Amino acid sequence: MVLLLIVSVIWALSFGLTAQVSGLGAPFVTAARTVLAALVFLPFLDLKGMPPRRVLAFAGIGALQFGLMYLLYIASFRWLRPSEVALFTIFTPLFVTLVDDLLEGRMSWTFLLTAALAVLGTGICVWSGLGRGGMLRGFLLMQAANLCFALGQVLYRRAAPASGRRDRDLMGLLYLGASVVAVTAAAPSISWDRVAAMDLRQGAVLLYLGVVASGLGFFLFNAGARRTDIGTLAIFNNMKIPLAILASGLVFREAVDWPRLAAGGAVIACALGLNHVAGGRP
Question: How far apart are CA 265 and CA 243, in angstroms?
């Protein structure tokens, strides 16, 4: 759980930063983030003795969880404000629980309830009314991104222990799979004029997003996913959102609806408590 909490804090800063580079184009930003993340972890890659089928499986998980997810996620910024992107990530816990149940061939209502509570609590924190033009397109892009991220983390959680490898030995392979998808998608559509006009601040933001938010963040998140139950994993998919609001108020001195944040946080805490009482699920 500690690893998931650390990642939640790192990601709490990412929504606004992503918006600052979205003008470079979703394909380019996705390719840059995944390639930077791959460069961080390629020195640790250990494929010795791993069957080719398993190598391809992990590369495929990375292509889905990071590559395709990022293309959809960053593309949604064309239609949504950063706060709305954050709002529409709240459904990920439901996807995590439902995907795990589907793969296990069962339906666990207690854990579906805790995931729903996490969605409700996060929604209380950030909901401010919707209705702009293009909202539906952005919403659908975000739900597709949520599904890719949920499916990838559940598949990794199931496959990694059987590999006999440490997380750092595998992450370079996942990022390579993501990079293949991202670079292939980006190549025909990169606006090199916009990339050439990138200023120093955008370059620094892109470096942070690639190395820290993507590289370190996803490594710690997937490592945490191996070490916790599926209910806690589902709930922590949304923990970054109230933490982002908290940081906005305490660090950046932005206006925050504290009663709303407290109410939403209490509901999320109830979800974690219910999951603990239920005993989690391996």
Answer: 9
DSSP state of 45: -
pLDDT in tens, 47-90: 888 999 999 999 999 999 998 998 898 888 888 776 677 777 87
Strands (E), 135-206: none
Alpha carbon distance 52, 86 (integer Å): 37
Residue 86 · residue 238 · CB < 8 Å? no
Q: Which of 3, 26, 7 is CA-nearest to residue 206?
A: 26
Task: Tell me the residue type at 198.
Answer: M
- 107 half-sphere exposure, CB direction, 13 A CA radius: 2
pTM for the full predicted model: 0.80
**Three-point CA angle 280, 219, 164, nearest 5°:** 75
- DSSP sequence for 234-254: HHHTSTHHHHHHHHHHHTS--
DSSP E strands in the chain: the ranges are none
**Spatial CA neighbour of 93 closest among 123, 130, 73:** 123
Cβ neighbourhood burial of 145 (10 Å; 0-12, 13-18, 19+): buried
- Alpha helices, H only, 67-108: 69-75, 82-88, 92-104
